[in-house]
Design brief:
With 353 residues, this protein is of the alpha+beta class. 66% of the residues lie in helices and 9% in strands.
Amino acid sequence: MAASTLEDTDFDYAMSVAEKTVGLMARHRVPPTPDNFSVWFTYVLGTSIELKRAIDILIGNKRRFDAKTNYDLFVAYMGLQGSDGRTVNHASQRLRLLMLSARQFLNTAIADNHSQMQAISDVADRGGAEVHPRQLIEGLMKELEKATTRATDLETNFAEKARELDSIRDSLSKSEERAKTDTLTGLPNRRGLEEFFRVAQIAAMERGEPLSVLLIDIDHFKKFNDNFGHGVGDQVLQLMATVLRDKVREGDLPARYGGEELIAVLPKADLAACKRVAERIRRTIAERSIAGRSADEVLPGITISIGVAQFQPGESMSDLIERGDRALYFAKKTGRNRVVAENELDPELAKAV
């Protein structure tokens, strides 16, 4: 939870929000962990419209707040914390230990080098005395062998440190990727979506290119969970993710927006092009089916509603998605199983959505 949220909230109000938070968590059987509490406290505060909307959708669809759902909410809306945060902390500890070890080894090597130089100097000084040349050569060879051994040890030690650094970097990279991925569908989550959109938004404005989004909502998704269980509902979402990945281009980003809603960001695609892609997705889903748990179990067909909107230079992602949402809910209100672009909205009918 952002520190400013608490700092701007007086004690009495914070206590009332905390009490309401605990009550809501108990009602929906959400374990009272620090991560979960920060999510629901923010939800009750209402400071994150996106988080509130996501939880409202989950509640409306009677979604069970299991460990995976709670984790997804936390990662998507509260930032890189929890288990991934622990990964980052662990990597930081490993890095500190690595640097300390390298520094200690280097200090030892420098001290040994000074000793070596002094030893060679001593051997050289003996050259002025009546010492047999063979003894001098043997003394120098001995000291040079020590220097070679120390150099080899130093090289080996720093090669090991380089491998350890590669391991830390790989661990952080995987942690970062997990934090941006929805565990159920394998699609990017809200964090991944926001990062991609920021880059696409800047590119669209710099190059004067179109940028569009399509928002997908599964029609009557609640009946899959209520009548056939959450396992079937998860299968529907996974099917949706597969079709979405297949139907968008390589440079597009399909993502899970929240609940049963998915989204795709299409750089270089105007409203008409995005609507054509959306229509292909809608037709493909209508032709697919989900197998039941037994041979005689008949599952209903799947249909989706899609809203399409085009980016307007300078606007935020939330403004763009809000327009797409209006088109999406207009599609649902006027029959479902259809695609509606923002320019098709009837101003009067749209007010009722």
